[in-house]
């Protein structure tokens, strides 16, 4: 384990022996163990088809039933409606395509959707929306239609839609995909400033290095490596074994010796 | 978070960006007035010719009140054209008693039938156009919601509003990709690529629907939309009365026409 858990506190995320097979028999998760301490930023790396998205959908109970236990800040995911509602508040998932996430006619309504589902109304709800939009620097776009925003802006709004639920852990699926370099850098700045636990699914290795002190590699439904990000990225045979590659010309700085 | 303030999300061809009396009226009263007016028009006996002149005068008055240019309305009323063609054909096609007019032998029944379609269709289309011109699509949904329209319908409409553009953009990209590879359909039998594209688009729409649903569930959606943002800007009694003037005037005309016939 690269990072020791802060003494005594419950981890934000605790995944124990999670298995899942799709109805067609394809085994997507084959006993996944993963613990993320509160306040930690962890990158979940892995090639296409490794089971990353399947794992993400287990974290908030959209998928399940294949065995194993997922707990979020001590609360175990089960099929009970009330538990699921609380789990979905605690786990904020930002999906890869912001057009999947933003479905209401205006930015403000979309950001309000999550907290309104939690039962917030009136001034309290408006305050949540303001707070979330401010955190991603999108306050002035509140009344605009999502499809009038740039892709980078839409991704930031997508982050705001889950921030508005004040999640225990923010889970991002490929946050840097399709972003131009400036939007990519701006998003990194926003994510770094957020005071939440972060799990970032990606195969953008420099982004993982930039944002996450710790990385885990998921391949063929199992966690096959778990170490500080610089250690993983300076292990070419390990990366090659799991179809991960650094961009051309990119050399990660050597990790500081322990 | 009132819908009235956030309603400017979507510009569509049928909406006229203005700030007028009609534009400021809450959507639910406009929808109700439009529906009531159209109902009165439809149930009026077709022989009461002068009643339709009265209805048309009402339309002109409302359009003037909303400061909607006649040309703007007329251009969009062209949607009615297929029905007009059918209405014009009826006097020639229908059977029964005939009259001679400029050397043409026309069916009386067909003349009335054609008139019926033409008059009621045109008035209905114009009334809907005035509603659309003065109400954003966002507000239309809010209005339907406030009129207790089943939520499943308003939700479907909301999704259409949001995803029509996404799907249109997707279709555009697919088309560009297709013609970039030399597809240039000029004749009906060359439409294979287009047809396959429609199929692919349907599949994509379906998959997107699933992903959108997953994203909604992840934010605590349980089958009911939180109605929190529909609470402000609800119509006052005065606004209801103001909007009721039009359908009431139409109803008066209809009653008069039936009694005096």
From TrEMBL, chain A:
Family to which the UniProt record says this protein belongs: Belongs to the ABC transporter superfamily.
SUPFAM superfamilies in UniProt: P-loop containing nucleoside triphosphate hydrolases
GO molecular function per UniProt: ATP binding; ATP hydrolysis activity; ATPase-coupled transmembrane transporter activity
Record flagged with keyword Membrane: yes
Main location: membrane
CDD domains: ABC_cobalt_CbiO_domain1 (cd03225)
Membrane-protein topology: Peripheral membrane protein
InterPro entries referenced in this protein's UniProt entry, alphabetically: AAA+_ATPase, ABC_transporter-like_ATP-bd, ABC_transporter-like_CS, ABC_transpr_CbiO/EcfA_su, Co_trans_ATP-bd, ECF_ABC_transporter_ATP-bd, P-loop_NTPase
GO aspect biological process, one term: cobalt ion transport
Known function: Probably part of an ABC transporter complex. Responsible for energy coupling to the transport system.
A GO CC term assigned to this protein in UniProt: ATP-binding cassette (ABC) transporter complex
Keywords: ATP-binding, Cell membrane, Membrane, Nucleotide-binding, Translocase, Transport
Protein name: ABC transporter ATP-binding protein
Gene3D superfamilies the record matches: P-loop containing nucleotide triphosphate hydrolases (3.40.50.300)
Pfam family, one: ABC_tran
ABC transporter domain span: 13-245
Automatic annotation (TrEMBL), chain B:
Source organism, top-level taxon: Bacteria
Span of the signal peptide: none
Topological category with respect to the lipid bilayer: Multi-pass membrane protein
Main location: membrane
Subcellular location: Cell membrane
GO CC list: ATP-binding cassette (ABC) transporter complex
Protein's UniProt name: Cobalt/nickel transport system permease protein
Species assigned in the record: Micromonospora pattaloongensis
């Amino acid at each position: 384990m690269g990072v020791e858990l802060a003494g005594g506190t419950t981890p934000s995320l605790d995944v124990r022996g999670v298995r899942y097979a799709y109805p067609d028999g394809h085994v997507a998760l084959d006993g996944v163990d993963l613990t993320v301490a509160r306040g930690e930023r962890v990158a979940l790396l892995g090639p296409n088809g490794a089971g990353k998205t399947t794992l993400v959908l287990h974290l908030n109970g959209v998928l399940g039933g294949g065995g194993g236990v997922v707990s979020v800040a001590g609360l175990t995911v089960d099929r009970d409606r009330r538990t699921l509602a609380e789990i979905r508040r605690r786990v904020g998932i930002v999906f890869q395509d912001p057009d999947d996430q933003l479905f209401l006619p205006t930015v403000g309504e979309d950001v309000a959707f999550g907290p309104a589902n939690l039962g917030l109304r009136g001034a309290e709800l408006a305050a949540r929306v303001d707070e979330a939009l401010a955190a991603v620097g999108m306050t002035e776009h509140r009344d605009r239609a999502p499809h009038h925003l740039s892709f980078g802006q839409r991704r930031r709004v997508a982050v705001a839609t889950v921030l508005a639920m004040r999640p225990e852990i923010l889970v991002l699926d490929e946050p840097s995909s399709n972003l131009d370099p400036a939007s990519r850098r701006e998003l990194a700045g926003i994510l770094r400033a957020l005071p939440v636990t972060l799990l970032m699914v990606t195969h953008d290795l420099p982004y993982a290095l930039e944002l996450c002190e710790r990385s885990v590699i998921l391949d063929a439904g199992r966690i096959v490596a778990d170490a500080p990000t610089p250690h993983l990225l300076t292990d070419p045979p390990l990366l090659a074994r799991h179809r991960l590659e650094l961009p051309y010309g990119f050399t990660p700085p050597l990790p500081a010796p322990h | 978070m009132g819908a009235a303030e956030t309603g400017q999300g979507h510009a569509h061809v049928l909406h006229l960006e203005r700030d007028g009396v009609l534009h400021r009226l809450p959507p639910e009263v406009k929808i109700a007035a439009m529906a009531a007016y159209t109902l009165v028009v439809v149930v009026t006996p077709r022989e009461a010719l002068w009643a339709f002149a009265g209805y048309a005068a009402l339309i002109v008055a409302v359009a003037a009140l909303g400061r909607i240019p006649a040309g703007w309305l007329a251009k969009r009323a062209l949607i009615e054209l297929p029905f007009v063609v059918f209405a014009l054909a009826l006097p020639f096609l229908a059977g029964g008693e005939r009259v001679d007019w400029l050397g043409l032998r026309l069916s009386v029944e067909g003349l009335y039938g054609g008139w019926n379609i033409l008059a009621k269709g045109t008035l209905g289309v114009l009334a809907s156009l005035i509603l659309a011109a003065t109400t954003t699509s966002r507000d239309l949904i809010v209005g339907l919601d406030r009129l207790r329209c089943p939520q499943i319908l308003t939700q479907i409409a909301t999704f259409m509003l949001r995803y029509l553009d996404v799907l249109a953009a997707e279709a555009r990209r697919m088309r560009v990709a297709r013609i970039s590879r030399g597809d240039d359909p000029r004749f009906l039998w060359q439409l294979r690529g287009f047809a396959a594209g429609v199929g692919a688009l349907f599949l994509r729409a379906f998959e997107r629907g699933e992903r959108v649903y997953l994203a909604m569930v992840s934010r605590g959606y349980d089958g009911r939309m939180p109605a929190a943002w529909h609470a402000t800007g609800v119509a006052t009694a005065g606004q209801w009365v103001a909007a009721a003037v039009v359908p009431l005037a139409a109803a008066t005309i209809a009653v008069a026409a039936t009694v005096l016939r």
